[in-house]
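Aim 2 progress update. The chain analyzed this quarter is reproduced below.
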Amino acid sequence: MYNKGIKDNPLKTREDVRALARTMIDSALARFGQGDLSVCEGETGAKYSHKTAWIEGFLRPLFGLVPLCAGGFSSDLWEVYRQRIAAGTDPDSEEYWGELEGKDQKIVEMASLGLGLALAPEFLWEPFSKKERENLAGWLRQVNEAPLAANNWLFFPVIVNLGLKKAGASYSQEIMDEALSRIEDNYLGEGWYSDGPAPQRDYYIPFAMHFYGLIYAGLMEDEDQERCRLYKERAALFAKDFIFWFGGEGDGLPFGRSLTYRFAMSAFWGALAFAGVEVFPWGVVKGLLLRNIRWWMRRPIWDEGGVMTIGYGYPNLKMAEFYNAPGSPAWAMKSFLALALPDTHPFWQAKEEELPALPRLSLQPHPFMLIMRGEEGRHVQALTSGQYARFEPTFMSAKYEKFAYSNVFGFSVPGGEYGYDQGAFDSTLALCEQGDDLYRVRRKCEWVRVSYEGIVSLWKPWPDVRVCTWLIPWGSWHVRVHKITGSRLLKGGEGAYAVGCDGGFSHETVLEDQNESMARAWYPKGCTAVLNLEGVRKGQVVVPHPNTNVLYSRTKLPVLTGDLLLGETWLACGVLGTRTLFEAEKEWEHPPVYTRDDHGFCVSGKGKSLTWRFDTEEWRMDGEGDM
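Predicted structure tokens:
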């Protein structure tokens, strides 16, 4: 792990954050600030050219440098940026970055320049000659003619034209207004957007849709009061849901695509401060931002030159997107937006506070989630069904359609196409035809219903096979029930969480066992188990291929396996996931009790019961106690 300027940084104060930003920018410039533009300064590629990948790696650190200097810090790095930007936007230069071609990745990277023109024109605009300004503005104005996806990309012409406007250059109000109008088509209500016309609600909502909206709100409040008011109100509503995605130690919930941007997940909290949206006390907001960045600083995410690697918890191309180039992870620097605020701002003056007391269960209908918080808020589990990224990013089903996601266990992507070990089928039901070992998992739900009692969904692994799945929160457990109907001879495996298996307890014994009804894998990084409640299935602990999990390079995975009957099969299991051995031992003594008859099924234990009635398709809760 690269630790220069990072390992000993306590990340408590504005100066600490500035020091981290400077270290990351220095490292990026050493890699991308010089050299041949046709070389990506890395050995891996993305869907776009090496030249475009270089531009991305060079420009993304502006998300750190611009707020740093806008906030009053001095920097000697601007000369390098101005030289390369002047050359890159000059059509007569050998280093010209080129014209936009369709939905060009360069459109994304224009946003950092737009932010620079808006927040730091004295560094990015005023020092240029008249001709250099014309070139820069002309290159940026290409965005006004470019085709845009109907998702977070709509904000790019907004931020670019806003920057041109603030710098005093020619800009298009018409294009801004059109994009802002189209953005409204993505608003769902209660603070939530979709990232385009698809049931996809991931980190692009906080670190793109709200992030850019809050920049707009912070800069345009005097000129577009009503829209800025809406953006702030929506962000405040969203914050009340999004806070549940973070554990007490700062780690966020791994879910969805583009996880290689890492602590961009907490950029939303800095953007709230930038726009002056005090939905929680500033000490709480400050804690959410700084704890998340500190958590990431403890992960092996840097290469030897100090540039953030592609991956999530460690360098890992297996889970990466097709649009992840060597410089892509620098979008994490969006979390440095709060540096634009002066030291006297109440965000920086506030004493960092822990998370407030939050309910153990949060119903979030827009992302189709039930979020469970346990172990003093340190374990966050999200039961989910119904998301679908229709453009099919890499391993879409693993990133969006597992039954459960956890900040402790992460999730796994397939390492291959054959068998349980290659498939790494954690938190899902994998089915295949008997005599085969090529499995199918849930990719898209036909319909979904979300309530505090549980989530019900229908999905079809084959056109003639229907699976109705119920997900029920039950403390540190959750219960899964499946009704499978079809005319195929099938077999299947259903996984608990995958747990990192390197290391051992200092005073306790690592536990790993299996029998005809359950499988357990209890390790220092977490304890997980699956207990059969209905159906004929036996337990086994699978060793998935390395580097399939986003948090841990080596894992163990408790799984239930068995054959399914022709016609109709009912399966049910309880899945346990805890951070600590103490919690696991306590919960293992009181597993959920499950029964089913012709009228419905019931889950009970600890003085409460929950019944699903087939005739009414409704839940009935009896007794007291948290689920």
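The chain has a mean pLDDT of 95. Residues 14-349 form a domain with the Glycosyltransferase fold (CATH 1.50.10.10). These observations will guide the mutagenesis experiments scheduled for the next reporting period.
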